[in-house]
């Protein structure tokens, strides 16, 4: 991970707030904005693109597409907890920058340590927006096993973050 992780951590810290402001113009709920930005980075990382010259533009495009998809889903299923007037703070505290960088490093490390099928199922669900049935078919396993792999992925990443107080 080493050099690649440092480069990705620097990209995350440098782009997170810009992406959050951009996505807030499309999708106003702060928690959803944070989820979309996080998902954009996971999608970017799991794409294993390596030598892309336009990384900032590429990650912005991923984030925009995720926000537009989330907005479409929200319009189909409106939620009472959406606050259209919530604003994103454009200037995080130094502590928040450190916490964000640490959370990304922990997430990357935990993703790399997930067992093969668990990682693939998690990525298909979280990043690929695939259903459990689609994941089961793709991996050639039962739906219950696919569901277990997805849940295990979420739990292992959550536990890794919690172990570090995040």
UniProtKB/TrEMBL annotation:
UniProt keywords, alphabetically: Sigma factor, Transcription, Transcription regulation
This protein's record includes keyword Transcription: yes
Pfam families found in the cross-reference section: Sigma70_r2, Sigma70_r4_2
GO MF terms, alphabetically ordered: DNA binding; sigma factor activity
One GO BP annotation of this record: DNA-templated transcription initiation
Keyword Iron belongs to the record: no
Classification via Gene3D superfamilies: 1.10.1740.10, Winged helix-like DNA-binding domain superfamily/Winged helix DNA-binding domain (1.10.10.10)
Residue span(s) of domain RNA polymerase sigma-70 region: 11-76
Taxonomy, superkingdom: Bacteria
Residue ranges of domain RNA polymerase sigma factor 70 region 4 type in the record: 108-149
InterPro entries per record: RNA_pol_sigma-70-like, RNA_pol_sigma-70_dom, RNA_pol_sigma70_r2, RNA_pol_sigma70_r4_t2, RNA_pol_sigma_r2, RNA_pol_sigma_r3/r4-like, WH-like_DNA-bd_sf
Recorded family membership: Belongs to the sigma-70 factor family. ECF subfamily.
NCBIfam families in UniProt: sigma70-ECF (TIGR02937)
Protein name, entry field: Sigma-70 family RNA polymerase sigma factor
Species of provenance: Endobacterium cereale
């Amino acid at each position: 991970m080493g050099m690649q992780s440092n480069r990705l951590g620097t990209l995350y810290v440098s782009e997170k707030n810009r992406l959050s402001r951009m996505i807030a113009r499309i999708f106003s709920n702060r928690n959803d904005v944070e989820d979309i930005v996080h998902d954009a980075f996971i999608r970017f990382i799991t794409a294993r693109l390596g030598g892309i010259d336009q990384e900032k533009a590429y990650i912005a495009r991923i984030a925009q597409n995720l926000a537009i998809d989330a907005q479409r889903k929200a319009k189909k299923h409106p939620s009472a907890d959406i606050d259209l007037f919530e604003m994103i703070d454009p200037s995080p505290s130094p502590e928040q920058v450190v916490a964000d960088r640490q959370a990304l490093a922990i997430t990357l490390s935990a993703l790399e340590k997930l067992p093969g099928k668990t990682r693939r199922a998690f990525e298909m669900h979280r990043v690929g927006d695939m259903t459990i049935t689609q994941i089961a078919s793709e991996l050639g396993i039962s739906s219950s096993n696919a569901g277990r792999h997805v849940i295990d992925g979420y739990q292992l990443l959550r536990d890794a973050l919690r172990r570090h107080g995040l």
